Amino acid sequence: MATYGMAQRKIKVRKYSDSNRPHLKFVVNYREAGKRKRTFFETKEQAASVAAFKNAELKHNGIEHSEFPTSIRVMAQNAVEQLKPFGKTIADAVQHYVAYLKANERSCTAVQLVKELLAAKKADGVSERHLRDIRYRLGAFAEKFDGRMVATITSKEIDDWLRSLPVAAVTRNHYRGLAVLAFNFAARNGYAVSNPAEDAAKARVVGEAPGILTPTEAARLLEAATPDILPYLAIGLFAGLRRAELERLDWSEIDFDSGLIEVTAQKAKTARRRHVPMQPNLRHWLLPLRKHKGNVTPVLGFRESFELAREAAGISEWPENALRHSFASYHLAHFKNAATLALEMGHTNSGMIFNHYRELVKPKDAERYWNIKPAAAGRRKIVHMTQAR
Predict the structure, then answer these.
(1) Does the N-terminal or the C-terminal CB of the chain have fewer CB atoms within 10 Å?
(2) Does one domain contain both 248 and 354?
(3) Containing structural domain, residue 60
(4) Is a pLDDT exceeding 70 seen at residue 61?
């Protein structure tokens, strides 16, 4: 509370006379918001009442408060009451809103955000497959919010967009994940003050077993494959590399002497180097096609060759990530070692392996799977499988 002393002049009622306004007889002079104010009255009682109020205000709150406009004080008090349930102050609110206004000034459109994110990720060396995923899924986001400044997009709007997508729950969550990535990028670059995508609801995914190929389907697929895509399919089925890792794999990283396939840190999703052993049947598939160096996966024509092989194998519905999921399921059923499988797949622990792949296939089917081998030289192009006992 400020002290009311001699330094603060008492507000008084003074007589007033103006021939143009003869009805006004008294005036009270005071200061408000740093400016001089004069209020005129017809009676001394009216003037004295206002002077007394101003003097009491000055004595109780000091000069700064008494000079503060009443309308602003009322506004401030209302703001305090509204912020109280949230544990925030007027200063917090001002800081947040000023940041929002500044972000709006610096913000960019959704289309521009996706364009800059793609350029940044390409410069960071992410895989072409990941870039295509960003381009496709966030392209839909940019189209939906075309012309909007990203700082103005709300969580509810992102929720509504995600729910409007004609996709399964898992895929919808993929879209959400990329939206979170985009808004994190926006926040780091000052285009938004927060990440509204993080508050968007995740779709509930009902637990389903990963889609895998049967031993017969896997055998037919390899039999139908042309030599250019056969190494890709065989390594996917019997070594379990991720699709992006397969697309980057070079023949020089397949060591037939040690029986190991090296996934370098630069090419691994986890950015950690690992070695995956070649099972005997995989070695049989790769030896006739081995090269000293060069891409294992063909740069051109892969999709066409793959679709022809799939159709020839009679696989009408291709399960998502079928090669890697098949590898994991049959590996766990046959070798019964979740920790080893986790290392080969590039996971940090065996928890996910145990939860996702345990008891998906029977041991007799796993035995058939790991005995899928190419035909001996000179025989018909068929696949020999050891039959279950």
Answers:
(1) C
(2) yes
(3) 13-68
(4) no
